[in-house]
Prior knowledge:
Blueprint: E1 4-9, H1 22-25, E2 30-31, E3 36-41, H2 47-58, H3 74-79, E4 83-87, E5 94-98, H4 99-119, H5 129-139, H6 141-150, H7 159-170, E6 176-180, H8 188-204, E7 208-212, H9 216-219, E8 224-230, E9 233-236, H10 243-253, H11 255-259
Parallel strand pairs: 3-7, 3-8, 5-6, 6-7
Antiparallel strand pairs: 1-2, 1-4, 8-9
Helix pairs in contact: 5-6, 7-8
Amino acid sequence: MSYISLIDLLTEKKNPFPFNVSSVKHCRNINMDSPITFFIGDNGTGKSTLIETIAYRLQLPHMDGSDYSKKSFNASKSLLPYLKISFNIDRPIGFFFRAEDFGDYLNSVDRRDFALHQSLSDLEGEVPDEIIQNMKDNANYQMHHMRFEYGQELQSFSHGEAYMKIIQEKINRPGIYILDEPEAALSPAKQLSLIYFIQEHLKNYNSQFIIATHSPMLMAIPNSNIYEINEDGMQLTPLDETEHYSITKSFLNNPEIYLRHL
């Protein structure tokens, strides 16, 4: 049984942003009674804004451990008074993954580590390396947090491997897990790994996944609901009737037809 059964954005406001995006205008009585719900649509339809607002309301922790007061969540904050969530069962723990947070987090750790390396460079050769490393760890909370959470620096992995490492560490018990465009970090092979991981997780735990994506591969996960968002509405749509699937299949079947006109 899913935790969230229904969501509504009950507002008649049409402007300014984010009230003018399709996901806000058409989010009415959206049935979430499925272990996996996908929100799909073209760029600018508001998929990310919608799932961020759900994560904000639930106060799900996210990548860098910060709260939801930062500027990038202002749109979601403005929608909170209008968001109605109905539950089948009480809200559990969970996690919120934004692809942009993942990249920003790794980059910020790198920048901080480089700055510390520069500031402690005078000690090299004079102080044992392990002492210098301990000093850096004590000064760099993000690096310490990374080692504590994941056992080693995520920079030692490829981008996709690091993302999957976080997925495996964080999605390890029943909860609501919200993923914003996870395919941005994953190759097709790693997308298959994510599909397998989600399916195995749902065999063992009563969890709910809410995913915004452009990937027809991810949308193919069995027993999931796909809501396609456009200017005309937000409709529950079979995989093979979605625009993403149709365009991708048509292109791969005959790319020359498309490429000769580009």
